[in-house]
């Protein structure tokens, strides 16, 4: 049976080089060659018999896919490299042989659940807006939180000219002496600084922020800077688009 050819950008993404969109950009920039010929237009299809190189380096399309859940600590950037020399999430996984990268971003001072993988297809799926993957955060905020104050977040607020999708919110604790509150907020969008901006909008500036859960993946058993392999069933569920959180017994 003849092997089915696949789009070049998909093959690059599956090898863990970059997301599919970023892989398309690599092609357009002329940084990809197939069987020794530079490719700079989208639409090319390849099979496992074709030699693909990115920036002159052969593409190992058969690289084993790996999946990790990291409890990102404060003071670490969510990139593969940093021109300021700061520690990155990839540095934390330095003993992992595969070339992994983060799915989405967490701010420098935000902690919590972050998926690391070399599976570009899954990363692209999880980050696509239509997936509506729940991300649950706990925020320590300045001020006395009330459900009345948080109500606008449940309807959506306008940030930088664009309205946010409705969020789920809850108050975990209020310290009237220190005038701080702990608020849980669930969103499925992924805008830059979104949770901080949303809470700032309702007069509750964020002091500390932690992502407790991504889809059904929580931080149980993971201290900051620790990570674990995702289980086969967890990966299977993510790929199937089953992001439901099943409470632990």
From TrEMBL:
EC annotation from Swiss-Prot or TrEMBL: 5.4.99.-
Assigned keywords, A-Z: Isomerase, RNA-binding
Record's signal peptide: none
Record flagged with keyword Isomerase: yes
PROSITE patterns to which the protein is assigned, alphabetical: PSI_RSU (PS01149), S4 (PS50889)
NCBIfam families in the record: pseudouridine synthase (TIGR00093)
Family statement: Belongs to the pseudouridine synthase RsuA family.
Protein name from the UniProt record: Pseudouridine synthase
